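Hi all, posting the design record for the shared folder.

TITLE: backbone redesign
STEP: 1 of 1
STRUCTURE INPUT:
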C-alpha cells in the first residue's frame, strides 16, 4: 500500500485541499502539521529548519509518496485529484478544471496582498487602498466568472456532472471568505 505523508503548517491554507481529497477518496495519509511556534524568528525549531532545507522549493506543503517528494500546492492537488478521480472525466474536463484553478490562483494574488498588508502592519490607509483597489475588484471578477460557469453548466458543478478539484478549491475559498 502506498504511504502518503502531507507536511504543512497547522492551518487550513494550502494544505486543506489535499486533506479533503484524501478524505473524499478514503485514502489514509500521515498528516504532519508544523506548529506556528516552530516558525517564530529566533525560536525556529531544529526540525523546521532542517525540513525547510530539504523541501523541493524551501516551502510547504510537501507531499511524500513512498519517499518521492512533491512540492507546490497546485501540483500536489492536481496529482491527488487525478489519482483519486477528481480531475474530470475527460481530457477536456481536466483542462477546464485546471483552467478554473489557474484563474483562482490569479485572483489569489490580490487576496494575498490584502492579507499580508494586514499581517505586516501596514497603515489603515494602505490596507484600505489594497482592499478597495486590488482585492475587491479581483474578487468580484472571479466570483462573477464562477457564477457564469455554474449557470452555463447547469449541473451544480463547475465542470461536467461530478465533483472535481476545481469545485473543492472554490468551496474551500468561499468557506475562508466567510470566516475571515
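Okay, here is what came back for every position:
SEQUENCE:
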Amino acid at each position: 500500500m502506498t504511504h502518503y505523508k502531507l507536511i504543512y503548517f497547522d492551518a487550513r491554507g494550502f494544505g486543506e485541499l489535499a486533506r479533503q481529497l484524501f478524505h473524499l477518496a478514503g485514502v489514509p495519509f500521515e498528516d504532519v502539521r508544523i506548529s506556528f511556534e516552530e516558525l517564530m524568528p529566533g525560536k525556529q525549531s531544529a526540525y523546521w529548519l532542517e525540513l525547510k532545507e530539504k523541501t523541493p522549493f524551501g516551502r510547504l506543503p510537501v507531499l511524500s509518496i513512498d519517499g518521492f517528494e512533491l512540492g507546490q500546492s497546485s501540483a500536489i492537488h492536481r496529482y491527488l485529484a487525478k489519482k483519486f478521480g477528481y480531475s474530470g472525466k475527460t481530457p477536456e474536463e481536466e483542462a477546464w478544471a485546471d483552467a478554473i484553478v489557474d484563474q483562482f490562483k490569479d485572483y489569489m494574488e490580490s487576496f494575498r496582498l490584502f492579507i499580508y498588508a494586514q499581517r505586516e502592519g501596514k497603515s489603515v490607509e494602505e490596507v484600505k487602498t489594497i482592499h478597495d483597489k486590488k482585492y475587491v475588484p479581483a474578487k468580484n471578477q472571479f466570483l462573477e466568472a464562477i457564477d457564469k460557469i455554474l449557470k452555463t453548466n447547469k449541473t451544480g458543478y463547475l465542470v461536467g456532472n461530478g465533483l472535481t478539484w476545481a469545485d473543492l478549491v472554490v468551496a474551500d475559498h468561499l468557506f475562508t471568505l466567510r470566516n475571515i
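COMMENT: The two ends are 39 Å apart (CA to CA).
Let me know if anyone wants the other runs.
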